[in-house]
Design brief:
This protein is about 75% helix and about 0% strand. The protein is mainly α. The longest helix is centred in the first third of the chain and has 31 residues.
Length: about 260
Amino acid sequence: MKFQRINALLIRHLYLMKRSFPRIMDIFFWPVMELLLWGFLSVYIQKLKIANLNIVTVLLGAIILWSLLQSAQQSISVAFLEEVWEKNLLNIFVTPLRIIEFLFSTLFLGIIKIVLVSAVLGILAALFYAFNIFQFGFSLIPFIIVLLIFGWAIGLFTMAVILRFGTSAQVLAFGFIFLIQPFSAVFYPVSALPAGVRHVSYLLPSTYVFEGMRAVMAGGLFPYHELVLASAVAGVYLVLVLFFFYKMFGWVKQRGLLMKLD
């Protein structure tokens, strides 16, 4: 694996980002709009004094973490789709570039996007709602790392499906993550779900992350149990998805379908 090839792909995407207003909107505009929408709604609910729970803290923390998960997923799947849209996929893989180097370039791109998104949302949440996510110190960092791993696993899965079925499946790059949102206990605890649905919820590492987030923000003991479960489930998913992706990539190469991917 050569870092210069990873760096070349990363620089290419950063230049595209710099010159593309829609790509900049993906980093700044849409996450900020979600923060403002849910932020003002949470302030309104808090003023109703429905419960003693700090609604602002819970909802804004959930929005920020969900935005990080979404950015991690889309950084991989959308970067891959851009190569497909520009008919550049074959040009890339006739070079000495290895698939692992391509994946690492998208991971580094995702980290850059995640840093930008978290910085913007953290500053705006502090300015508009006096919410400082950094007040929780290092307690949330392990959960954020698990969330990013799960986001990358989802991104790889959507890439593999697009490889297999072509761009007719590209809607998964933008919509698949929202299919798991109702089961991930993002804005409510798992106990709020119907009994039968909870079994599905516990199959997702994101569920343990958001449950752990609420425990951290409530000021209780650090939820080691949720962290261990989230890490284990996310790790299993990542290994399975990597295997699935390599199988699909090999299947496409063997049949000479890279140049016909549309």
